[in-house]
Design brief:
The termini are far apart. About 70% of the residues lie in helices and about 0% in strands. With about 190 residues, the chain is an all-alpha fold. Helix 1 packs across helix 6, helix 5 runs antiparallel to helix 9 and helix 7 packs across helix 8.
């Protein structure tokens, strides 16, 4: 990604995090980035392209802070916890990412144009979590009776819900992480879900 394009996306994320998707104006992004509106239209075609590109950008940025430890000997449960709990950090970029995701999810309720990108990126997250659970099952650390896809849906939905409370300062970072850890343990016990 070009430096200029990244600068525009960073500015877009800041504006969305402050004003929401509905409050996003191209003029505000241009002012924040110190560029002309024409440059934004050149790179993103229209406001919708700017919003979907910003969502892809925060997704890529999140992959950087929730990435693997690089240690092949880390138990899958610890990797899962690290991946899910990394969504809650006392870090400006992490909070901004969470705010952008929440705003785009909310806006997609009314704007069908946002749904394909949102669905694609959400599916990638679900697949990553489900594959890790399946890896734990292959290792024998997670019971075969756990439905990896269903557990991934519930865990990622929990993270999304906790995120809104965390951003509103209704939960501390430690409390949000503790809820994720407790939910993960309950999901991975392998009790038959009837």
């Amino acid at each position: 990604m070009t430096t200029r394009r990244a600068k525009l996306l960073e500015a877009t994320c800041r504006v969305i995090a402050l004003r929401g998707v509905r409050g996003l104006r191209v003029e505000d992004v241009a002012a924040d980035a110190g560029v002309s509106k024409t440059l934004i239209y050149y790179h993103f075609r229209d406001r919708a392209g700017l919003v979907t590109s910003a969502l892809e950008y925060v997704n890529d940025r999140a992959e950087g802070y929730v990435g693997s430890t690089g240690d092949d000997h880390v138990p899958v449960r610890d990797l899962l916890l690290g991946l899910l709990a990394a969504e809650f950090q006392d870090d400006t970029a992490v909070r901004e990412n969470s705010a952008v995701w929440g705003e785009v999810r909310a806006a997609a309720t009314f704007d069908e144009g946002l749904r394909p990108t949102l669905a694609s990126l959400t599916e990638r997250w679900l697949v990553d979590i489900a594959e890790l659970i399946a890896d734990g099952q292959d290792e024998g650390n997670i019971p075969e009776s756990v439905d990896s896809r269903a557990a991934a849906v519930r865990l990622t939905s929990l993270v999304e819900g906790l995120s809104g409370r965390w951003l509103a300062s209704l939960l501390t970072t430690a409390e949000a992480r503790a809820h994720v850890a407790a939910a993960l343990e309950r999901e991975l016990v392998g009790v038959s879900q009837g």
